[in-house]
DNA sequence: GGGCGCAAACTGCGATCGCAGATCAACGAT
DNA sequence: ATCGTTGATCTGCGATCGCAGTTTGCGCCC
């Protein structure tokens, strides 16, 4: 509980708190959920995280409350907070909405994309390709999220982006749980390549098709391994 | 609605607080925003609302923080909290997403609707018709929100419903600000009648068309009066 | 040695206090 | 009478404390 590290975590040259503490914590956990740092069923505690971050329980609490309200976390019957475990019905609904919204964002991105945007997406695609070739799971998951995010950001519709990110927030841990193998990454990279080409060609329908294909094929693998949350049972002295 | 009893509002036989205080406050303000009880630019204060409700500032704060994060409220430069004032660009984006998601919900509602659902929607439609005929603005706005909500609820997709409700949350005050007149209500009721018939006939395409027509025609009137927030400017001495 | 029980240590939630920054009102000077 | 300045009071945000309920783990009893 060092009071000196409250205002500035050990981030080196970080100047000051640009946002409120709860917002920084929210963003941190948000990114962790999207990029696969958390597993379904994993228990989180307000005070525990507060102690890790060197802050009081209050901002952590508000951040986790928001994530709970957004469906990323859930409160168990014993008032414990954990990463939400999706049912197949939950997952199918999320996938259907993702197809709709991400397809919409892709169409608009193809119309609105600028050259700087395109360069950024190309860079993200290169990183994703590298991660896929090396079958580096963690790196692949983070790069995959960043690649999709880069495309949707080019659509220049902040609300649509935030709604898509909210969906990723919920499926992130499930994706992590399905631990994509080489086969999965290879087929998915086919869609990613198509998506990049369609974006560069300003081909709205093509970009939508590539995105929808990516989502729906990936969903099959994720859904199959949905009922295997390896974090929930803690038999003894975990 | 005096909050003389903190733990138990005057809900009669309500046993205890079914939800947390912050959730109750969130729901309360949420409904107020959707059904048009708040105007764009209207200032809200944590401590003020806490005093009105007879609770401490804490649960109010968390509720309003969530609404701010969801884009319903905004923090001014002077750290004052107010109902968000939409720009035309904001509004166009919201409308486009609404067309997409509410059309999707309508299609699925037409496929999933049960007889009890249909009865409920019929009742809501009757109430809406009454309010429109009497040109009772407040009643019409609340009934309109309830009618749409009833249809989307029949789709049996809770996440989709919550995302639609989040959009209504943001446009609610703007709709209120446009004070629909008799002409607006009359044309809108045409689409509402079509929607009810399509739902009863399980006509997915027809229901989507009615919903999209309703949204897009209403959007024209709302957008036109968007730049007239009568609450923002306070020239001198209130 | 094995099963039971109670207390300590967790959990989230609400209340209260204090801080830094901004607004506003009232007072004093010109 | 008008302008400038200052203090009281507002704002949101974080820390700390306390409450009620649940889980857990150590010690006691059989």
UniProtKB/TrEMBL annotation, chains A, B:
Q: Which Gene3D superfamilies match?
A: GntR ligand-binding domain-like, Winged helix-like DNA-binding domain superfamily/Winged helix DNA-binding domain
Coiled-coil annotated spans:
none
> From the UniProt record, which GO molecular function terms apply?
DNA binding; DNA-binding transcription factor activity
Q: Which residues form the HTH gntR-type domain?
A: 19-86
Alphabetized UniProt keyword annotations: DNA-binding, Transcription, Transcription regulation
Per the record, the domain of life is: Bacteria
Which stretch is the leader sequence?
none
Q: What is this protein called?
A: GntR family transcriptional regulator
Q: What is the organism of origin for this protein?
A: Pseudoponticoccus marisrubri
């Amino acid at each position: 509980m060092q009071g000196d590290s409250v205002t500035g975590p050990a981030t080196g040259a970080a100047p000051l708190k640009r946002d409120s503490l709860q917002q920084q914590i929210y963003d941190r956990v948000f990114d962790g959920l999207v990029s696969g740092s958390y597993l379904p069923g994993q228990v989180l505690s307000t005070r525990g995280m507060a102690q890790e971050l060197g802050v009081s329980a209050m901002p952590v609490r508000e951040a986790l409350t928001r994530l709970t309200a957004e469906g990323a976390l859930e409160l168990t019957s014993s008032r414990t907070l954990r990463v939400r475990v999706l049912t197949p019905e939950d997952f199918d609904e999320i996938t259907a909405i993702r197809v709709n919204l991400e397809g919409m964002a892709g169409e608009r991105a193809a119309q609105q994309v600028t050259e700087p945007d395109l360069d950024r997406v190309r860079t993200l695609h290169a990183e994703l390709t590298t991660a896929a070739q090396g079958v580096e799971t963690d790196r692949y998951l983070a790069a995959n999220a960043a690649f999709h995010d880069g495309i949707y950001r080019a659509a220049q519709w902040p609300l649509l982006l935030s709604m898509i990110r909210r969906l990723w927030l919920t499926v992130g841990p499930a994706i992590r749980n399905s631990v994509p193998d080489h086969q999965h990454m290879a087929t998915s990279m086919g869609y990613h390549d198509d998506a990049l080409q369609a974006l560069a060609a300003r081909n709205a329908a093509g970009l939508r098709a590539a995105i929808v294909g990516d989502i729906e094929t990936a969903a099959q693998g994720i859904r199959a391994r949905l009922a295997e949350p390896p974090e929930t049972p803690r038999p003894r002295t975990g």
